[in-house]
Design brief:
213 residues; alpha/beta; Rossmann fold; Arc Repressor Mutant, subunit A; 6-stranded parallel β-sheet; 14% strand; globular
């Protein structure tokens, strides 16, 4: 079964490219696309999507404000920011608005599709560069917060997740199966009182749960 998605981007050429890339064969179906998100709420109510790909700079409301509005009414819809912007302010404003992921437009097409699938399966969708920017922002803090009682292995898995690794990559780094990684993540979510990878990453950073180099 393919996931239904919307695209909001004022670049017509890019929208058409994404529509061609995200076909049913890729596991997605582009239900519709728009050059701005000014009427996103009405559009969502008419044709409910599982996932939204959102640009930041668009005429009218703009992507970050669009995410805030959509998440207030439809918190279960996944939203990925798809942008050229790499600066800290836009990254953190997007994540604080409720975005579930942040992918650069320079991301390899195959990696882009893979990242969307991992997001829909509960993972974190974030370009490696963006993950590094998040880490760098908090690099001054080196104190580990032990209040959540994570095991050594859970801390290791969480650290790789914060660094933007996929389930497969984490499994390779930890020399375990992907199913084992998923089980560890379920335990981590339970202990952190979160429901998805993006929330886990945010909490790990905000509460200084992991030790940053």
């Amino acid at each position: 079964m393919a996931y239904n998605l919307f695209i909001y981007d004022d670049n017509d050429r890019l929208r058409h490219t994404l529509e061609a890339l995200l076909t049913e064969a890729s596991g997605f179906v582009v239900k519709t696309s728009f050059g701005n998100c000014d009427h996103a709420i009405e559009q969502i109510r008419e044709n409910y999507p599982d996932l939204i790909i959102m640009d930041i700079n668009m005429p009218g409301m703009g992507g970050i404000n669009g995410v805030t509005l959509i998440k207030e009414l439809f918190p279960e819809i996944k939203i990925v920011m798809h942008t050229v912007f790499e600066d800290d302010e836009k990254i953190f404003n997007s994540l604080c608005a409720g975005a579930d992921g942040y992918l650069l437009k320079s991301t390899n097409p195959l990696k882009f599709v893979q990242s969307l699938h991992e997001l829909m399966e509960g993972g974190a969708s974030m370009s490696p560069f963006i993950a590094q920017r998040v880490l760098h922002f908090f690099r001054e803090s080196k104190k580990v917060n032990h209040q959540f009682s994570l095991t050594k292995r859970e801390l290791e898995v969480l650290t790789w997740l914060v660094k933007g690794h996929s389930y497969k990559m984490i499994a390779g780094e930890c020399s375990v199966t992907i199913d084992t990684v998923k089980k560890h993540l379920q335990n981590i979510y339970h202990k952190l009182h979160v429901s998805c990878a993006t929330e886990a990453v945010a909490k790990a950073i905000m509460h200084k749960i992991i030790l940053l180099d």
